[in-house]
Amino acid sequence: MLKIAWSEIYAHPLPDKHRFPMEKYNLLPEQLLYEGTIAQDNFFAPKPLTESQILRTHDAEYWQKLKEQTLTRQEERRTGFPLSKALVDREIVIMNGTVMCALYALQNGISFNIAGGTHHAFTNRGEGFCLLNDIAIAAHHLLDKDLASKVLVIDLDVHQGNGTAEIFANEPRVFTFSMHGQSNYPMHKEKSDLDIGLEDGTDDKTYLSILDKQMNSILDLFQPDYIFFQSGVDVLATDKLGRLGMTIEGCKTRDRMVLESCKRHGIPVAVSMGGGYSERIAHIVESHANTYRLAQEIFF
């Protein structure tokens, strides 16, 4: 059965609704239930992450600032959010959602967190609507428990996974692959194990050709036994922040390529949603929903 992390706290109001559309965290599960792609028992509600799990990935001083809401004004601005206890409480539930998804994927082949993909969170700071890094925390959990030995992060959000790259810069057991808009945020890019910077306006055909070549090469050379997939839909031409030229159908084909590769190679995959900022919320929900439909088609 496809297991999906979701909690009411995911849709907790955040201050900048214009740039961070919260509606998708309720509308996406509603759409999937309405159309029959999933049932209520597919969902599980994660509990907050433990402090020891957070400190495995993030610096103690930074975590203390988050807990006590003592970030400097500059540090707070960098995250994109006015800091609050409610915001931190939300974040640590989302983090554990991805950890639990990582474990469910070992059993079922695939799992989803309706939130997550917080790839701009560094070891010692937050950026770009990300306070803590869920993929890094979950990957560390698998490695520490000997549940995986070679982890591949496939980050296809339109923005580079700079925080994830920094966290795993000296970790040979994790391969970070980020395919993103070269001229988009962040302007200063970290060094992933493989970065593919795309030109503004990149269309479906060009994008999918590059992805097919690079992903197959990584799988052959690195031979991972676990994959985390950051499936942001801000690659769409309709996205307010994205600047690429992909269609909803092209985005669906992208996700099919990734999920079919995982299934074909027998590699468990945990999927986090990542970004999506199209003017019409329907475009965001439909593009995310396609990923779940494909998972049911390919894995179950």
The average pLDDT value, as a whole number, equals: 95
Low-pLDDT parts are: none
- Helicity, as a percent range: 40-55%
Total count of helical runs of at least 4 residues:
10
Main sheet, how many strands, which sense, barrel?
Answer: 8 strands, parallel
Q: Helices and strands: which structural class?
A: alpha/beta
Coarse morphology: globular
Q: What is the CATH superfamily?
A: Histone deacetylase domain
Organism: Roseivirga misakiensis
Keywords: Hydrolase
GO molecular function, one term: histone deacetylase activity
Domain Histone deacetylase: 18-288
Brief overview, please?
Belongs to the histone deacetylase family. With 300 residues, the chain is of the alpha/beta class. It has helices at 24-35, 51-57, 60-68, 73-79, 85-108, 134-144, 162-167, 204-222, 248-265, 281-299; strands spanning 3-5, 43-44, 110-113, 151-155, 174-181, 194-198, 226-230, 269-272.
Describe it for me?
- InterPro entries: HDAC_classIV, HDACs, His_deacetylse_dom, His_deacetylse_dom_sf, Ureohydrolase_dom_sf.
- Belongs to the histone deacetylase family.
- By secondary structure, this protein is of the alpha/beta class.
- Helix content is 44%, strand content 12%.
- It has helices at residues 24-35, 51-57, 60-68, 73-79, 85-108, 134-144, 162-167, 204-222, 248-265, 281-299; strands spanning 3-5, 43-44, 110-113, 151-155, 174-181, 194-198, 226-230, 269-272.
- It has an eight-stranded parallel β-sheet with strand order 2-1-3-8-7-4-5-6, sandwiched between helices.
- α1 links the parallel β1 and β2.
- α1 (24-35) crosses α10 (281-299) and α8 runs parallel beside α9 (248-265).
